[in-house]
Give the backbone structure.
Amino acid sequence: MNLSRSTFPIKSSIVRLLFFAFAFCLAISLPVFASETGDTSASQGHPHDAMQAKLATDSASQLSTLAEQHQEEPTEKGPPLGTLDFLMSSKYLAWFGMMVVGVVLLLLNGINRWVRLGMILVAFVLFGLDYIFMVHPSPMCGVTKLFTFWFTRGTAVPIFLAIFLAIFVTSLLGRKLFCGWVCPLGAFQELFNKIPFKPRWKQFNFGMFNAVRFALLAMFFLTFFDIKSYLTYFAQDIGNVPPDLLTAYSAYSVYDPINYFELLHWGGSDVRWWIMMIILIIASLALYRPFCYSICPIGAISWLLEKIAPGHVRIDRKLCNDCQICVIKSPCPTIKPLLEGKDFTLPDCTSCGECINTCSRKAITFGFRR
């Protein structure tokens, strides 16, 4: 079948490079994945249970990890896992691999609608189905639970610290590389946003959405310090605290009732799960990544880091003729304010790169120049 450049505007050399990039990612992550799942006799059903049980149980032994992990005790307890151990596990290597592939495609202008669709579908399958790699501890835990344990016990739980570093160190290099190329919930929203649907609001009031997002983040910190003494008591005597009482006090977090990462546990059948899922799908059809723009604490913090990240989409003013084609064809609300020079109030740029090939004058590029 003969595909013209207008149908699939990507050079064959880029296709080959993408293939080798995926092969590289698999080469570095599969041996680790195999070693993590090698002892199949220790678990049945889920092929990743043995390693994930070790990760969950190890974190619990360090500081009582989340009840949301619910893993079985491993047959043999090894030494406690550190932050580097988590960062070198197959899940995190796959995270980094996806981000590397994304950056390579961005630098080579190798992204169009179909390439982008394929990449977010891969991200969702790998990290959002809770089968190949566990969803939890979720990215949101990398902010909320890390902060909670740090201030109640004075210790950073390695599994949460690893999530935090993997997300925000890479965000310091390129704008929202994790959010745009790895996050399963972001990929889920974007997949639905690609379905033709009307009405659709691409240029919404970002300032209002961002204010809500930062208000939630502020409420999280304020409510935490208000009951910090109670949480500290529980953390010191965690083994003797009744689970129901601990659950009641853990619900202080404003994020717990609206943690949409919980939807990625696909066994949910209660009314609350269905209501939240329907709301998210409808909102994603009409808006670009609504959870990310209005709720997610990672989105809020990484929006601040966008201002200093050297890797980002840029406009060559000498080549741009202000035709607005990129505004029409790009799925996100970011390119229009970027053209207008509103850098400080710019909506989240997830470095998806779909705007780059919409410009026939090559005025839009991604790079690491300051």
User: Anything to note?
Assistant: Confidence is low (pLDDT under 50) at residues 1-10, 39-75. The first helix runs from residue 12 to 36. The two ends are 42 Å apart (CA to CA).
